Amino acid sequence: MPRIAPLSPPYAEDVQASFDAIMPPGADPLILFRAIAASPRHWRRFRAASLLERGPLSLRDRELVIDRTCARARCEYEWGVHVAIFADAAGLSAAEVEATVLEDADWSGWSPAEQALLAVVDALHDRATLTDGEWSRLRAHYDEAQAMEVLFLCGFYRTVAYVANGLALPPEPGAARFPS
Description:
Number of strands: 0
CATH superfamily of the largest domain: AhpD-like
Radius of gyration: 16 Å
Number of helices: 9
Helix content: 55-70%
Structural class: mainly alpha
Order of helices and strands: HHHHHHHHH
Strand content: under 5%
């Protein structure tokens, strides 16, 4: 059981509208969203800081950043949601999905751009900063807007990991589980 009870339907009109804006038609809101929405202040802040819509990265790169950030933060809840919903659409193979958890950034299955991307995720996780070399390597493959998106995605999904892990959220139905 989560440490804070998620909202249950029926939801207040404004909460329902915000769920409808971020969930596919007919899909129940995620436990994470319902738990955060139990606190109106935090739900407003979460939505205001949200990077839930597509940005300047390809779906594949976006999901690599999110999956790796969640894997490094040991957030099986959010990692599992993203793998279940986006891995196929992002063109991630089963081996690549596993590698977001089990392999180093320099794994031979990643392209040079993906290696640079994942090295940045790892550096931010480990040190909360980047060396000039890590930044230059990222910028060799990604423009300024994309590089900024990487920084914000890492920070946003690290926050999501803190919330999901801190609340001890159970896996969503059908979510992927970490490989052993």
